[in-house]
Automatic annotation (TrEMBL):
Transmembrane spans: none
Signal peptide start-end: none
Family, similarity comment: Belongs to the GTP cyclohydrolase I type 2/NIF3 family.
Pfam families tied to this protein: DUF34_NIF3 (PF01784)
Assembly information from the UniProt record: Homohexamer.
InterPro entries: DUF34/NIF3, DUF34/NIF3_bac, DUF34/NIF3_sf, N-reg_PII/ATP_PRibTrfase_C
Keyword annotations of the record: Metal-binding
Database matches in SUPFAM superfamilies: NIF3 (NGG1p interacting factor 3)-like (SSF102705)
Keyword tRNA-binding attributed: no
PANTHER family assigned: GTP CYCLOHYDROLASE 1 TYPE 2 HOMOLOG (PTHR13799:SF14), NGG1 INTERACTING FACTOR 3 (PTHR13799)
Organism domain of life: Bacteria
Name of the protein: GTP cyclohydrolase 1 type 2 homolog
Native source organism of the sequence: Rhodococcoides kroppenstedtii
Keyword Zinc: no
């Protein structure tokens, strides 16, 4: 039996895109490959939340061919990556060292597993569901009418163009038979029948679904495979329904604990930062239902309240927003450093690639422990 070949960067990208689909990224985001040649071999991979100078230095020192990060290095408008700029200097160093850079940001936030799943797992939550569910990938329902003899060819063409996928199933369709009727007029070149004569044909009504993004490809495939000069078909845009994907998670702590105990658990299980862990609420509050959101989550305070959470764990909570939330009867709050709340995702992403490529020759992966939280000094008045 031949041994597997080394992984290519294109293989690794395909696996990351499978688990963290780019289609889940917010419109303003920038995700995917930043630097690197998809044809290059990848054996050594490193993971971090941010591509800071210290992280890039460590990845290069480790001989990494790929650095996978959560936060985009090039997010907002960039008109230069010259080495005279801080970000450009990092790009040049990565390129010179042969180390590719890949980002999974808001697509990893909404994926399942994703950033908030990693945070929920670290805190011991069970039975988690999205805090802010994202609609399933927008689908079209295609209804195509085709003669019996050509139904299989048309169906296969639709599938090849991206139709027929439902969850973990492929080549999905439904069909029934009936009689189609048409009368070609002057200028027509009918595949069946003749100009001026009424024609009736035994036909199949084929129904299938396809991502809305594949509409042009499916239409082109339909027209190419269908025997008729003017094929009859309908396209229905389906209503999006909440699915298992989305931002944040809500789950249970089993057994329940007090807010004081749960705050201590958060501090124990997340990496230590100068920011620390802060809680707001009754320290003796019984905590069973917990909402979490990795990263900045103050826009989901109402969602946490609507989900019936006893406490909401997130980052970057502002004074007035938190105060108004608590005065309005919202759940207790636990505020952690942005980096700390997202750091557990690094191990999750590492596991994704290790499961796919761990048996490949020379494969090596590691999460970089460099703290990329910008806050570096924490102080309290020792007299208080």
């Amino acid at each position: 039996m031949t041994s597997p070949r080394p992984a290519l960067l294109s293989d690794v990208i395909a696996e990351l895109d499978r688990v963290y689909p780019p289609v889940l990224a917010e419109d303003w985001d920038s995700v995917g490959l930043v630097t690197g040649d998809p044809a290059d071999e990848v054996r050594t991979v490193r993971f971090a939340v941010d591509a800071t100078e210290a992280v890039v230095d460590r990845a290069i020192a480790d001989g990494a061919e790929l650095l996978v990060v959560h936060h985009p290095l090039l997010l907002r408008g960039v008109d230069t990556v010259g080495a005279h700029t801080p970000k450009g200097a990092l790009i040049h160093r990565l390129v010179r060292a042969g180390c590719a850079l890949f980002t999974a940001h808001t697509n990893a936030d909404s994926a399942r597993p994703g950033v908030s799943d990693a945070l929920a797992d670290a805190l011991g939550l069970v039975d988690t569901v999205p805090l802010d569910p994202k609609d399933d990938v927008p689908l079209d329902k295609w209804v195509v009418f085709v003669p019996d003899a050509d139904a299989a060819a048309v169906r296969d063409a639709l599938f090849a163009a991206g139709a027929g996928a439902l969850g973990d199933y492929r080549d999905c369709s439904w069909a029934t038979t009936g009689v189609g009727q048409f009368r070609p007029v002057d200028g027509a070149h009918p595949a069946l029948g003749s100009v001026g004569s009424l024609e009736q044909v035994d036909e199949q009504r084929i129904e299938t679904v396809a991502p809305r993004s594949a509409r042009a490809a499916v239409l082109a495939a339909l027209r190419a495979a269908h025997p008729y000069e003017e094929p009859a078909f309908d396209v229905f845009a389906q209503v999006g329904l909440p699915g298992p994907l989305g931002l944040g998670r809500v789950g249970r702590v089993d057994p329940p604990v007090t807010l004081r105990e749960f705050t201590a658990r958060v501090a124990e299980r997340l990496p230590t930062t100068a920011w620390g862990v802060r809680a707001a609420g009754d320290s003796d509050l019984r905590v069973e239902r917990v909402a979490v959101c990795g990263g900045s989550g103050d826009s989901y305070l109402a969602a946490a309240r609507g989900a019936g959470a006893d406490v909401y764990v997130t980052s970057d909570l502002r004074h007035h927003v938190a105060d108004e939330h608590l005065r309005g009867g919202g759940p207790a709050l636990i505020d952690v450093a942005h980096w700390a709340g997202e750091f557990p995702w690094c191990a999750q992403a590492r596991g994704v690639l290790d499961r796919a490529f761990g048996e490949r020759p020379g494969w090596s992966s590691a999460v970089l422990g460099e703290r990329t939280d910008p806050w570096t000094i924490g102080a309290v008045d020792p007299g208080r």
